[in-house]
Amino acid sequence: MRALTEALATPLSDADATVQSMPDASPAKWHLAHTTWFFETFVLRDHVPGYTLFDERYPFLFNSYYEAEGARHARHRRGMVTRPTLAEVLDYRRAVNEAVAGAIDTLPPAALELIELGCHHEQQHQELFVTDILHLFSENPCEPAIHTPERKQPVAMPGPIGWIEHDGGIQEIGHDGAGFAFDCEGPRHRVLLSPHAIADRTVTNGEWAAFIADGGYADARHWLADGWAWVKAEGIGAPLYWEKAGDGWTRFGLDGRRPVDPAAPVTHVSFYEADAYASWAGARLPTEAEWEVAAATADPASGNQMDAATAVEPRPSSGGPAFIGDVWEWTGSAYRPYPGFRAAEGAVGEYNGKFMSGQFVLRGGSCATPRGHLRTSYRNFFYPHQRWQFTGVRLAKDLPIC
Amino acid sequence: MRALTEALATPLSDADATVQSMPDASPAKWHLAHTTWFFETFVLRDHVPGYTLFDERYPFLFNSYYEAEGARHARHRRGMVTRPTLAEVLDYRRAVNEAVAGAIDTLPPAALELIELGCHHEQQHQELFVTDILHLFSENPCEPAIHTPERKQPVAMPGPIGWIEHDGGIQEIGHDGAGFAFDCEGPRHRVLLSPHAIADRTVTNGEWAAFIADGGYADARHWLADGWAWVKAEGIGAPLYWEKAGDGWTRFGLDGRRPVDPAAPVTHVSFYEADAYASWAGARLPTEAEWEVAAATADPASGNQMDAATAVEPRPSSGGPAFIGDVWEWTGSAYRPYPGFRAAEGAVGEYNGKFMSGQFVLRGGSCATPRGHLRTSYRNFFYPHQRWQFTGVRLAKDLPIC
Amino acid sequence: MRALTEALATPLSDADATVQSMPDASPAKWHLAHTTWFFETFVLRDHVPGYTLFDERYPFLFNSYYEAEGARHARHRRGMVTRPTLAEVLDYRRAVNEAVAGAIDTLPPAALELIELGCHHEQQHQELFVTDILHLFSENPCEPAIHTPERKQPVAMPGPIGWIEHDGGIQEIGHDGAGFAFDCEGPRHRVLLSPHAIADRTVTNGEWAAFIADGGYADARHWLADGWAWVKAEGIGAPLYWEKAGDGWTRFGLDGRRPVDPAAPVTHVSFYEADAYASWAGARLPTEAEWEVAAATADPASGNQMDAATAVEPRPSSGGPAFIGDVWEWTGSAYRPYPGFRAAEGAVGEYNGKFMSGQFVLRGGSCATPRGHLRTSYRNFFYPHQRWQFTGVRLAKDLPIC
Amino acid sequence: MRALTEALATPLSDADATVQSMPDASPAKWHLAHTTWFFETFVLRDHVPGYTLFDERYPFLFNSYYEAEGARHARHRRGMVTRPTLAEVLDYRRAVNEAVAGAIDTLPPAALELIELGCHHEQQHQELFVTDILHLFSENPCEPAIHTPERKQPVAMPGPIGWIEHDGGIQEIGHDGAGFAFDCEGPRHRVLLSPHAIADRTVTNGEWAAFIADGGYADARHWLADGWAWVKAEGIGAPLYWEKAGDGWTRFGLDGRRPVDPAAPVTHVSFYEADAYASWAGARLPTEAEWEVAAATADPASGNQMDAATAVEPRPSSGGPAFIGDVWEWTGSAYRPYPGFRAAEGAVGEYNGKFMSGQFVLRGGSCATPRGHLRTSYRNFFYPHQRWQFTGVRLAKDLPIC
């Protein structure tokens, strides 16, 4: 797992790995170091007697948001830290890897659980690493490609959306406690669904272009009030990274600026845009429970997810009601605790619960989610205006109550 | 109904009625005129042939947020409109009242429904009128009283919170369609509750003072991340309008600055504060479904609500599990559509649906809610940092699943 | 003198007199009260034994910026003070007038000097009163007229600018100490002028329209860097209060919105605009010393100044090198102390000196300057982006050194 | 000359050279490239037939503010450009050096003048390079040292300030046209001085510590109004880079954090602070004319200036009325054109004139000024709140007019 993070850093210079492109994003070097700090702090410091910190300045530099872990560097100033260098941070990784490996046979079960948590934590940062670097390179007027483009098989345009109907009724969702999951995924609990239908695929770039062409970004009727204010204030008229080019569109990606593929799932759209699209399309977003019930039998290791440090991107579907991979799907559910939710004890209890206001749940993983990280119970969450992740849209609609 | 609005304006000077104290609040004169514009536009203009607008400039000035009704004055500049004067706006009210009264016998049912909606709409603005004026006067360094204080019967301190337990299971909530309700209150639908307990009264000022004294505002562990950022950025350390006075606290109210009554429900707290208090107290906020089920048999016209233009304020409870009046109770539920929700057609369809992101639901009405306006299905909503309304807290907690 | 202030308030409602339209402007009621506070504080409180304040809350409310006088209400919140009312403030004026009149025969010379200073101080606020109210009414979408328009004699378009040449050499400027002057006008001192020419009239609206038509606001070459940034950030394309109307322009004034008179001096332009215009015209702004030398023999009580509470505005010139009245003329001189300048002792020492950074000097008075207030040594000053005063432009240019 | 810039970059990593610490500062890599762009554009592109740009994307990336040269990257986003790398920019430098060297024998005089201008231009950026990198490293919580500290000879505390008196009268200042100077330094012209005295040395750190200890930052009476607002808004209480350490102070410098030397000139103070200090000391700042007359016979190549890429810093004076080096001295003169000033034609005409508003003149060069760059007529300029340059204070005072 740790090797993938380093592979992601391979194409990067020291400068690439240092700069912070916006307060929401972190430098690649910070991701490399913070994920290491997590192991050093919660495993080595707390569970290995006599362990000496690699560098006493690092906890201040590389703690993210754990209030219980004390003072830390201001998030929006992470890009000021040109030293330690990328090479020094890679040394830090090696040293902590070795210390954990050396101690692992004698660690208590609580520490082993924290190692497992640390691996899942690092996988989350692998996805952020990819999207943060993409954002940084998009801010360079030269728009350099991070990876060379991959050869792609031509894929036919997907047919019209098919609708998977559900009669409603009591279902169970949430993680059942077997194997690893983040605290916010449980407890497993019963939910009551209404009769509804959910689309068998996500919205494509071609469909999104039709929304634009129909004036979708200029018609207040489709938009939530906060979304409309955001569109006006920010001058939004297309997904992030899109640019008009003649009659069509290009997008910036890990392989540079290229034409938008009309058959691929649309991505880099905000919740506001997703909701407006659904309104324009006469539909709505699914709730997270509807999504999870529909995806219950899907293989969380399937689909277009991240296997290696390459130019991942959403791809045209080859058919079938795939719920996994490609793009995180905005749901209509605010990110709030499940019935009976309890945050974990101690600093790691700050992992999820304290973010449960103002954000919406996304489901299904993306092309940048490390394969093996996902579960169908997985709850990702972002603010409704954010769109630098690989975020997309699946439609749903109500069915009459029989 | 219309007379109460004018009674609320009676103690106000032209200047009092004109100034806007913050972008969230509107001038009293604007409330007087906007509620009148609603009747003039949707009833008289749309349904009375040959009706001539009272003043052609008023639709631009007094439309609030109806995109379908065209351009309008910027919300945060409403306080610039020193003319028309308060007297002219009262003339406008009289003229529209007379025109509606003159036409009412010949209006089609659709117009009568809009009159009913206009009455409920105006009652909402009556509450905002009270809270906006309170905010304005609080910004005056002299802190003038708007009303003379009312004589109050001394009331004993309420006893400890009692807990109303519920086994969970399928229940119905939402408006059933009989009589008036806002579109967001329906459709009536089934919900699945978890076993839980809900407090039989709201949190008091005395209890809140204990939270402060225990360092509640200074301990990040109790707070949502967004709430903690808000506390730090705004320097929050007590409910709005509270000031430290010796060992105790005073609050500013419609009757000026007076000592905080420890027995009365705490008010003017944000969702963030409510959530942090609940966390400190080892509890949580109720969901809106839990609240509505618990309050199902409550009389929505009962309790401490607004009957007249006086110095309304939350009052010590005289006992009993009162769910109605005193303070709007923050729930833990994000304001989102019910299953099957459809916004009304036309401009009035902008009434609720477009606000369904980023806000939390409040229930139960307050001392400033005009009596007769409330229903147990009523869904009020505000952003989690807002606290100039009469907002308070009721606790809930999970019960083990049997 | 005091009666003119009250006359200025005559057309205003309580609301008109209360609202603050921007942080740079103050409510009319505040001007009425602050000028009174000046007399009450520095004359009555400091020099009349046993004087009791009219209201103990007023010093906090109506001190402007005198740090030595203690805490005061935040400038940008002056518009929140709906009470005391306009009527109460007028009572305050009467009471202080009477107290000063009753004491005047027994006051020491220092107090009499403060009365004189207070009169000049109030005249300054009379001009601000006019421009602040104009700004407030311009923010009302209905753009009400404050005064009915005055009948004007038609005046021919002025001819081309004539140039008054000066050979340079040592001259004297500054106030010589005879009669009243503000501290910043002295000491009188020698200056060394370069050979130059100064225009015999100010720039007209017609000339300004030609600057606009020639793309003057869109060509960076004419602009100071700070000015260009301001134009871009604020979207500036014409003087304040101008609006395009067909082929021509209208302006908002004390008599409402009316066509721009091409023969009248342009007004409501910033220093940045004045400087850009001069650059476009192949000229420059005069220094304040050049201006004062050229205007040395002008009668400071002449020209178009304010005699009464009417719809004052700059007027077409009837000929002659008039330096006085109509518009304050931006000079190219930063507002800095004269050689040997010393601020007065005590609180009134905060009158001028502490504002001597970042601002530019304006000369000559305007249509809103109370007649009798001006001197040719008078130094007005504003920030280079400000333009809600009656500010205009006179050109100058260098002559070769013989 | 070009080699010094590269020497300054030697201690820097690619990341150090890329990050932008604030909008006022530029990345080191940008300085390296922009100074090269200047030669490539104005010499090679404009004067070498057939010259092909090194990289067509560079003009957009590395133009600073020349509007006539077309669109360019936003100044505050310069730190986003992680590519081209530092190595690529050094290649760019080599290529342009070689092209200029190859063409120099055949260049017309106008191009040779532009080479000379380009050298002076690059020297200015050498100083900014040093101060910008210092600022960047100060933002790193680890506060790394850029250079190892230099051994210093102990120097005695300077004695009290001596005063150089001047009777006033007509003097000449400004560049006389012989040899290179920036356009703003001329034309040479006569000025009229008042009788005054100017200090024979700058203010020391020890004297500044006394100002702090006397409450200088907390007493509004010493401060310009804009300065006081700045102190309050920014929480200023000491020079930039100072930190309280026990009873004394430390400062951050190119050699890391070390104790403040009480004998050395104070530096990293703003104009506001300089002016407040002078007020506290019963003095004032000199005008730029007073300074230039006093410094007329000083050797502009003398004193503590930058000779190499080392840990330059202001040093204790060894005596004598040194006007050159150590710290740029704030004058009381706003940066405005001299009589008869004309900006150069073409793009290089944007070099100085357009910055002549809102800034104050500084004189005398600093420890970071490349030796050979300075003239006694040299006019440096910054905004009154800026203090990341090596800026200091020399006092002056008025003498009675005989």
From TrEMBL, chains A, B, C, D:
Record's keyword terms, sorted: Iron, Oxidoreductase
Stored InterPro entries: CTDL_fold (IPR016187), DinB-like (IPR024775), DinB/YfiT-like (IPR034660), EgtB (IPR017806), Sulfatase_Mod_Factor_Kinase (IPR051043), SUMF_dom (IPR005532), SUMF_sf (IPR042095)
Sequence ranges assigned to domain DinB-like in this UniProt record: 2-115
Domain Sulfatase-modifying factor enzyme-like: 164-299, 323-397
The keyword Oxidoreductase is assigned to this record: yes
Any one Gene Ontology BP term: ergothioneine biosynthetic process
Record-linked Gene3D superfamilies: paralog of FGE (formylglycine-generating enzyme) (3.90.1580.10)
Pfam families: DinB_2, FGE-sulfatase
Keyword Transport assigned: no
Pathway participation: Amino-acid biosynthesis; ergothioneine biosynthesis
NCBIfam families: egtB_TIGR03440
Name by which UniProt lists this protein: Ergothioneine biosynthesis protein EgtB
Organism of this sequence: Sphingomonas yantingensis
